[in-house]
Specification:
Four copies of one chain form a homotetramer.
Chain A (H helix, E strand, L loop, with lengths): L1 H18 L3 E7 L1 H4 L7 H8 L5 E7 L5 H11 L7 E5 L2 H9 L6 H17 L3 E5 L15 H17 L3 E3 L1 H12 L18 H16 L2
Parallel strand pairs in A: 1-2, 1-3, 3-4, 4-5
Helix pairs in contact in A: 3-9, 4-6, 6-7
């Protein structure tokens, strides 16, 4: 009897293990995430850092995207993938395009569309994680032109996460702390970015580590 | 027998008349349309100009709206009303907010969201009519600051209407023609607008007439 | 003999005292300085705080002015007054008008025109003192939209002062320190400003105190 | 006696003719004028089109210059050259930099600085000729983004020329007329410009011809 039961248990456990699908994570964002799937990119690094039988990592980044662009394309690019988790990382273009093209996003509409994105993802059964926009310039004395706005939009995201009880990956905070230690000359790029915005090797590594910590809860 | 048949016919005709629902038209737009339902506004005027048993006119304008704001709120504010016809009139803020807040809409994204709005309206069974943005300033020598962009976005809408075989109400053209006749001093406001953008009495009347012509095909 | 000499000395000293003209200080700036001469304004307060026989205080502020506007009007408005000291306080509009009108000032040209203003003032024999732009918004976590730029332009002014060996009145630093103590709710206005930029009573008092300290060296 | 006197007169006249200096013309402007001295540039072409004993042509263009940059550097770069004629050609950056950097020039200040530039040039004894900004985009239906502003600033220059009784070289008008004939496909560049703003061969030739006509009065 005991042997029979044990065998049954083992069989059940094995079958569970065999059918257990890995958690499907979609990284949903802009050009930074678009580059994240390239060799050395943060998603590429994550794939090597996390057990592939437990996590399936999918990039869904498109250059120039703002929050409302995510909303427009989310059915096709994200929800159709039936993700378990969606990591939303957006905001740089919402701020940056104000001064470069006159086509940024107002703060109140940023929140409105972000809420709508979260609503739809949650309705599709996905767990949602939010990221703050990391940097437009790496100077540590808040003298990068867009620092005021980036701080504002980051806080909007933190408030949103708190209000909706979501996990936030505070990349802006992580980038600043890293730069305070590693950017003694107050350079505007070259520490974690190649061009003030897009990630160099150290930047991709830092983001991958932050993402891993959030995804695995460690 | 003949009397009986006649009575039946009359009864049938009456019943048809009684159940025939008027065409439900939703005007979908920004602050200009929001003010259109006020006494003297263009929707208010249309209600008096068109037979109420044939047309039910509903305003769905919200101040500051750009094309992507329409996309965000269209399920609740338009499709839920089960409209037969939707008249979309948007574009002024997509252009204007570039210089006043740095939050206008890029031309390629303007078309992308406009296509998505039309897709959804058509999927809901509504006939869609498009309007060009009338004016930001009434000077007739194309020296209003946003004239270049307004002409560009108007052409994008005309091209869109052509490509999708939709009717376009060319308010920009109508406003220019009216001003060429009635604005000899090349004033920037006061002919059809109170403030270069929002409609005065003559403006509301002109828009109502243009809308009536388009809706009734006369 | 000694009595005669002493009397002579006293007479000389007295005559010197009598003919000694007060130091003429011109405050050269934008709308904040234009309002500074109003009752309760910072220049009005300074006039009560400093001995009138030693200091003659003149306001030369015009609303909307940027550094290049100061350069354009300095001959008539400042140099013609033969000032002993000129306190230059500018920068808010150079930053602010970027997003509100698209007509701010590039950082490199800000420095170029500032250098030209200083050159001309020094050539006219005036001692020049520089101020940093205090605030566009009083939130203390650097999340006011223009904080990045204001920090950048303030640093440009500090660097300029250092390079040219000039005294700098660091109002931006003073405002931040005051707000860190007195703005626990992280409000954007109402602590030192009425509207995020222009001074309320406390703001005028703080500026007056900072100016007094700089002008009297105490 | 009379023969001797006549000969003397002739000798004097001849000597005067021999020492007669050519008219010194300075072209004062932005990157378009900076490139104008290059081989094939409009100033280079003018040098071949006009008699060198009668006209000395000097380029004084610097990339990115707006009207206030001209004012800042005019003593060194123009007045020091003791020009007989100064052709001022500016305005593209005053308009363009609004949307690309947020650092354009307000229309009222454009006129203010232009007046100041003219005042100084006239005080230095130079004849001043004004040009309208030719183009930011060559589409002929006024649908280039900055057409509204360019038309506005061109009119400001025409009004300024009229008010001060100065000659205006209306390059904007000349460019539009040329494009109406030679740009049937409504292209945004490639007819007179390489990139919507800077001159190609045809553009340099057209400008040279317009300048020649204005300078020689033919």
């Amino acid at each position: 009897m005991r042997t029979g039961l044990s065998l049954l248990l083992i069989a059940l456990l094995l079958s569970t293990a065999f059918v257990a699908k890995p958690t499907r994570v979609v990284f949903f964002g802009d050009s930074i995430t678009q580059a994240g799937v390239n060799p050395g990119g943060y998603i590429d690094r994550l794939r090597k850092m996390m057990p592939t039988d437990q996590f399936e990592l999918i990039g869904a980044g498109i250059g120039g995207n703002k929050i409302y662009d995510l909303f427009l394309r989310m059915d096709n690019d994200v929800i159709a993938q039936k993700p378990d988790v969606v990591v939303v990382w957006v905001g740089v273009n919402d701020v940056w395009h104000k001064s470069s093209f006159g086509t940024g996003t107002d703060p109140d509409k940023f929140v409105k569309f972000y809420d709508a994105v979260i609503d739809k993802l949650q309705a599709a059964g996905a767990k949602v994680m939010l990221c703050t926009p990391a940097a437009i310039g790496e100077k540590t004395d808040f003298s990068n032109q867009q620092d005021g706005d980036l701080n504002q939009y980051s806080q909007l995201i933190r408030d949103l996460a708190k209000r909706r009880n979501l996990q936030v990956i505070d990349l802006r905070k992580a980038f600043l702390e890293y730069n305070l230690k590693n950017n003694p000359d107050n350079k505007e790029k070259g520490i974690l970015t190649t061009d003030r915005v897009h990630l160099n090797e150290a930047g991709n590594q830092l983001v991958a580590e932050q993402m891993q910590k959030a995804l695995t809860g460690k």
